[in-house]
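Open question from group meeting: does this chain pack into something compact, or does most of it stay loose? Before anyone orders reagents, we agreed to write out a predicted structure and look at it together. Recording both the input and the output here so the notebook holds the full record.
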Amino acid sequence: MKKINDLRDFLKVCEEEGEFQRVTAEVDWDLELSHIAKLSEEKGGPVLLFENIKGYHTPVVTSIFSNPRNMARALGMPPESTIFEMSKRWVEVTEKTAGIPPKPVKTGPIMENQQTGDQVDILSFPCPRYLPDDVGRFYGTAVSHISKDPESDFVNCGTYRMEVLDKKSLGIFFVRGKDVERIAQKYAARKELMPCAAVIGGDPRLFFLSGSTLPWGTSEYDVLGALRGEPIEVIESDLTGLPIPAHAEIVAEGFINPDPKSYRDEGPFGEYPGYYSPGRQPRPWIDVKRILYRNQPIFWAELIGRPPSANVNIHALDKTATLWTQLNQMKIPGICSVCFPPASGRFWAVISLKQMYPGHATQVGLAAFGTVTGHYAVKGVIIVDDDIRADDWDRVMWALSVRYNPATGTHIITGTRASPVDPALPIGQRVIGSQIILDATIPYHWEKKPKLCELDKTVVEKIKKRWGELGLK
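Structure tokens returned:
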């Protein structure tokens, strides 16, 4: 596998392996681009590079992670690897090291061009409008927002949608309680502006790490270094003081006034559950002071919404890896595998468990909800026995059919933290939700357990040796 240092390296790999298509015909940034990409994604299509955007010279790339094959390539794994296998690799790599911090450098490709002062114009880049009821154009759907805790050296990289309010302003949707919102509160207490940088491009793995749920104080840059096997190169900005990826495509730098009195209306937008977020609401916004960009930059845009989409695949990968890691850190015995099925996004997890004592399955379910990953927006955890792998959805459904007793295997927890874009909750009441454990295991304490139908192992081995003789594929 070729070394991937930035977005351009990754696109070359995709092109060489037949997972890439150039679109040379003129395409409108207003709905047409997104609709073409969505229809292609629903057919399992390749990465698309739109080279002729109406009114622009900058190309737009989409659909990079809309299928797991490219996520595997980004992790240096065979393209046929499943999200489960990728997550397992992620867990193994990151548990071997506490992370590899970024490497400061003096300059890099991102410094090739800049807009400052009156030159700053976000709309000089082809920010798309994605869906008919979106309020307008969005700069940030495949973006990493960089901020820094004012009380420590902790650098946070997060993905939050960014609406173009005007040529120098980006509305940004912070979720209450997320690391970036905690950082913003600290700046508010100090009555200071919050420096930030909105990064497009660079190492593509930073994008799906930016959507991950890491514990407070763990920088996504450090985990990226572990996955890369070497540090990412960053430049300390002379404007914001933030470490900016040296090989990014575009970076919008500026400041957020964290005082709610300064907020501006933002939204609605078609969000990752496949429904629109609530209407326009006052939210923070970035006062963009400078835009850095490479020569001939590539604008990266990812479609949100119902599956298939890059968003749900990324959620499935990073939530599986982070939940699995955090459960391992709790030292609870017997956890065999973990999986967030892609279609569920971040809402449902499956855990395979080798039971060792009564109440073990309930303990694991409760522990999952107590992790950094599991406490936010996760609605349910399904626990299955160790003869079923967590990503084997057909077997999981079988276990729910024949091992799950609703009267004794259901545990509902109320008063939990919900997602503000969860359409299953009433608009305006999306702060508190509920969670459920579905215990689809054979109870450990049963003295008499049902006997499973299994093949004779000796006969199976004999048949395997005769497989070719039998003319079977």
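Observations to bring back to the group:
Residues 330-440 form a domain with the UbiD C-terminal domain-like fold (CATH 3.40.1670.10).
The two ends are 30 Å apart (CA to CA).
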